[in-house]
Design a protein that fits this description.
- With about 650 residues, the chain is an alpha/beta fold.
- Helices cover about 45% and strands about 10% of the residues.
- Helix 2 packs parallel to helix 6 and helix 24 runs parallel beside helix 25.
- The longest helix has 22 residues.
- It is globular, with a radius of gyration of 25 Å.
């Protein structure tokens, strides 16, 4: 089914779309038009949801070496393209593309025309009409979304999120129930087929690893007026995901202190399958925090998530929620190595850590400008204001900064506080010497730091340090503006930096060894193996999280033995509910069996279907690089 262009076709297309007489926006629009023209309109009579990718690759808009020359002196985020956007799906499905066409730039008009021509090739009058003037039924809306989403990928935009699906699809569901007697069984069947469509081409849509493709769906939460928006589609979507057992779309659920336990238990059934979702986001914490960052209350109530877990607003945001990261573990280590011998008190050492965070923020802020973002005329058509070039900005233009190794930073400082300043049982220079030779001559000290020193998630004396570090991280970015007029949003996510930043570290004051990975996101150190899940959720529901609200979930691995019966499912649901009530902002759970993971490493052919949560996305374990596999294996597996 996959095919390649001939050499002659490739050269001809390249010559056209790389012409120096065209602006980059014109090139992007022409590339999109030609991509759809060369793409096959794959029609399977058994499929109700059309569109399959056949072209494995397509020429870029840059001639060889041209992108490097054009972007010289700029900060290029990832591929330099628009990504991690949640489109105005509600508006586009409601009104179609023709009303937007009348208000768009010529390049966007060209893209709209190309998308309409592509839809027409399926020979379905209802689909063609829906694309032009809006969907009039539940099935029309599903088919229209599929074409539009397919076209986004074709336009070189990536990490295309699904957004608040049960909200913008609900009017069509209700209307069809009333007008044609649409029943739940038919809806479920349509949803299952729709969900399967996300997995047709996902091998071509990769980020850091296969599975990291941004096809995230948000369910539940409240509406723009603050009313509970959980509906019948919310539950049906969870059931559809349970039935198909695929990694896409990746389910997220907005919750609050009033979320019924029954819904959390139903979601726990998804966790039991080992899919690594749903991921939970707590409206009680997230919405007020977004308002403090400058989002209107109505927009904040409408939040969804980007590819992983960062909070974005559908149709209104050109936020770059994962633009870069600060190594919190590295900042603590730098200060300990440089200042420990001189600091006379632990309070003085903490002030040095704070100063280091500010210095790192200064350096990173300077490195992020000027920024290069490639035009994306078709994505512009799908925003709330289609007249605006999305690459030049939108209503919200904020940058998200990850904070990696949070628990390891806290644990380093906690060990120093206890043994250097409180007990005075370890000489500062002796600790530094041991760190410098990776504890080669200090086995007892290494054991003491790794096993006996205070650890966040297990020992309460770490929590004041955690609160201080969160506030210092928040303060280091407060008041800064990026070049696009937005703010900086620090957060507790790690993305892939939990491996990258770990490679930069030597032996640490908590006993962490060179080459050992950090924990993913806002989770206890991998050195913590003797804490219970209740202790962990209490420790990680920090009040300061509201000031570092870019997103970053507590990630917990639960032994697959936890999910043995209905009573166990309710216990896990209660665990999630407890985290919400305590004030946790995000959580994701993984059902794992360490022996199965080890077996999958050694015998991948017999474990092709094994799915795990990686950092903010789920993927097939055997397709991951070994470094990611090893980190997952080392995570603590909790029992409830």
């Amino acid at each position: 089914m996959r095919r390649s262009l001939t050499a002659e076709q490739w050269d001809d297309i390249s010559r056209k779309i790389q012409s120096s007489t065209l602006t980059l926006a014109q090139r992007a629009a022409l590339r999109f038009k030609l991509f759809l023209e060369y793409e096959s309109d794959w029609i399977d009579a058994a499929e109700r949801i059309p569109a399959r990718r056949t072209l494995a690759s397509f020429p870029d808009i840059y001639a060889p070496g041209e992108k490097e020359r054009l972007t010289s002196g700029f900060h290029v985020h990832e591929q330099g393209r628009v990504c991690n956007i949640s489109s105005d799906w509600a508006g586009v499905l409601r009104e179609g593309l023709l009303p937007r066409r009348e208000r768009c730039a010529p390049e966007t008009v060209q893209c709209i025309d190309a998308a309409l021509e592509y839809a027409d090739r399926y020979g379905d009058e209802r689909l063609s009409q829906a694309m032009r003037t809006g969907a009039s039924s539940f099935l029309d809306a599903l088919r229209m979304f599929r074409i539009l989403h397919f076209c986004l990928w074709a336009s070189n935009v990536y990490h295309n999120t699904v957004g608040r699906f049960d909200q913008y699809m609900y009017p069509y569901y209700v209307a069809d129930k009333q007008n044609i007697g649409l029943d739940s069984a038919t809806v479920l069947s349509l949803l299952e087929e729709f969900f399967l469509s996300f997995n047709r081409d996902s091998d071509l849509y990769q980020g850091m690893q296969q599975g990291d493709n941004g096809q995230s769906m948000m369910l539940g939460g409240c509406d723009r007026d603050g009313r509970c928006a959980v509906n019948e589609l919310t539950s049906l979507c969870i059931t559809a995901s349970l039935n198909i057992r695929k990694i896409d779309p990746k389910i997220n659920l907005r919750v609050d202190k009033n979320t019924p336990l029954e819904l959390l238990v139903k979601c726990t059934e998804l966790t039991r399958l080992g899919l690594g979702f749903p991921q939970y986001s707590n409206d009680d914490i997230v919405i007020p925090a977004l308002v403090k960052l400058g989002y209107s209350i109505e927009d904040a109530r409408d939040y969804t998530v980007a590819a992983c877990w960062e909070f974005i607003i559908p149709g209104l945001a050109m936020d770059i929620p994962n633009i870069d990261a600060i190594s919190l573990a590295g900042a603590a280590d730098t200060v300990i190595r440089a200042k420990l011998a001189q600091c006379r008190s632990f309070a003085q050492l903490l002030e040095e850590v704070r100063a280091e965070l500010f210095a790192r923020a200064d350096a990173l802020e300077a490195a992020l400008k000027p920024i290069w973002i490639e035009p994306a005329p078709f994505q512009s058509a799908l925003m709330s204001d289609p007249t605006r070039d999305i690459s030049e900005g939108a209503k919200y233009n904020n940058y998200g900064i990850h904070g990696t190794g949070f628990a390891t930073a806290v644990d380093q400082l906690a060990a120093v506080k206890k043994y250097i300043y409180d007990e005075r049982s370890i000489d500062p220079n002796a600790l530094l010497d041991a760190m410098n030779d990776a504890f080669a001559r200090s086995a007892e000290l290494k054991y003491k730091l790794r096993a006996e020193a205070p650890k966040l998630g297990r020992d309460s004396e770490c929590e004041p340090i955690a609160d201080y570090l969160l506030d210092a991280f928040a303060d280091s970015w407060a008041g800064r503006k990026n070049e696009r007029g937005g703010v900086f949003r620090p957060g507790t996510g790690s993305a892939m930096y939990y491996l990258w930043h770990a490679d930069e570290l030597g032996a640490l004051a908590d006993g962490h060894m060179p080459g050992e990975p950090l924990s993913a996101n806002f989770s206890p150190s991998l050195l913590v193996s003797d804490a219970g899940p209740l202790s962990v959720i209490q420790a990680m529901a920090r009040p300061g999280i509201a000031r570092v609200i870019n997103g970053g979930p507590l990630t917990l691995e639960l032994s697959d033995t936890v999910f043995k019966n209905d009573e166990s499912l309710e216990k896990v649901g209660q665990l999630v509910r407890g985290f919400i009530i305590l004030g946790g902002h995000q959580m994701q759970l993984n059902a794992v069996n360490r022996q199965t993971l080890l077996s999958a490493q050694h015998d991948p052919d017999n474990h092709r279907g094994l799915i795990v949560r990686v950092w903010g996305w789920s993927g097939h374990f055997v397709q991951l690089d070994k470094s990611y596999q090893d980190q997952i294996i080392k995570r603590t597996s909790y029992k409830v």
